[in-house]
Amino acid sequence: MSSPLRLGIAGLGTVGIGVVKIVQKHAELLARRSGRDVTITAISARDRLKNRDADLSAYRWENDPVAVARADDVDVFVELIGGDNGIARDSIEAALRAGKDVVTANKALLAMHGQDLAELAESLGRAIRFEAAVAGGIPVIKAMTESLAGNDISRVMGVMNGTCNYILTRMESAGLPYEAVFEEARQLGYLEADPTLDVGGIDAGHKLAILSAIAFGTQVDFGAVEIEGIERVSIDDIRRAADLGYRIKLLGVAQMTARGLEQRMSPCLVPADSPLGQLHGGTNMVVVEGDSVGQIVLRGAGAGEGPTASAVLSDIVEIARGVRLPVFGQPAASLTAAQPARTAVPAAYYLRLELQDKPGALAKIATVLGDAGISIDRMRQYGQHSDSSVPVLVVTHKTTPDAIDFAIEALPRTGVLVSDPVELRIEEV
Ligand SMILES: NC(=O)c1ccc[n+]([C@@H]2O[C@H](COP(=O)([O-])OP(=O)(O)OC[C@H]3O[C@@H](n4cnc5c(N)ncnc54)[C@H](OP(=O)(O)O)[C@@H]3O)[C@@H](O)[C@H]2O)c1
Prior knowledge:
single chain, alpha/beta, Dihydrodipicolinate Reductase, domain 2, Alpha-Beta Plaits, 6-stranded parallel β-sheet, 24% strand, binds NADP nicotinamide-adenine-dinucleotide phosphate, Homoserine dehydrogenase, HDH_cat
């Protein structure tokens, strides 16, 4: 058997400790699969005295992650600290420059600086692997860079933030408003320290930007992702969407069009009986469409100690086996700067309008939609909400986002709305 593969792990939180536990529990299995022992030599975190629910006594402690990254007895630097800059980036760059391969779960860093890091790694002949960075335990990076390498990918979609999916499914099952379920999620510890990373769609947007780069051979461009979080999704919309046979999901969609690369992360309606519509709680799903393979659906735990550490170990074993791939599946120097395009692919839309209960109100709405070039597929009027208003739902035929924007701007001028109109895209899945 060849010499052991020696790991240096920086970050001993949820994921880091998960990795330590798998290395300890499956030492023999990992050695068989890798063809060599996989060992840990050095570790680092902020607080040496913290109780971490694992025996770390055999490993050398370093206060500074960069010392782990540069250590002579480390072959692979495993960065599990997080953050789109600072010590995570500094230590990864130090590791690459010291001739180490890198494994990370850090989607924020890759979404912001993936191109620079990939160019640095490849210029130095080193690997950066990041299976855990997108959709936790789901092997989507490997599927896209390797298993689907023979396909021209047309579209990648995903529900990739378990916290948002938990909030949306819990609102539906318990009939609770957003604010109440948000508070529940906070108390259960499901939210990041900065919750806008989750509910604002930023974390999921990071993941989508990474998948786009692999799918379309483009440089990661998080700044071009159109992002809208779930904060404005109301229990009314969840109920009405259900009435119409839909569920609301925070859905990421990336597709290459003649106008450029569309990337959007936003709440969308999907058919309740589709795989995405059937996704409950914290589970993630990624859907990839290729010209030869058709549609692939990958589903599994998107976060948590075990699933995320499982993905980190897959990268470690691949490095131990000697597998070397360009960071984003093709040489970083050959990734093109994508032309970002605002969403223009037509779709059906859901509109919820609260109208004054008076004759002619519906006709005025229909006129505005007609003027915008939007035709109506279905319209449903509900019983009176209050003495003076009625909720009306409209499902449009396929139309463009521009036409919807035009209508949303014009609708208040009818003088028959009692509140702002709500519009949500209905994604074909
Ligand atoms: N949690 C998940 O389910 C999940 C899923 C997918 C990807 N990820 C990614 O995995 C990475 C780690 O996430 P996590 O959930 O494990 O985070 P976490 O539980 O907050 O752990 C972060 C670790 O980094 C250490 N750390 C922070 N600043 C440091 C510094 N300046 N020097 C040394 N160590 C430092 C912390 O030390 P102390 O323990 O001493 O405070 C802690 O051990 C992030 O990039 C995250 O986005 C997480």
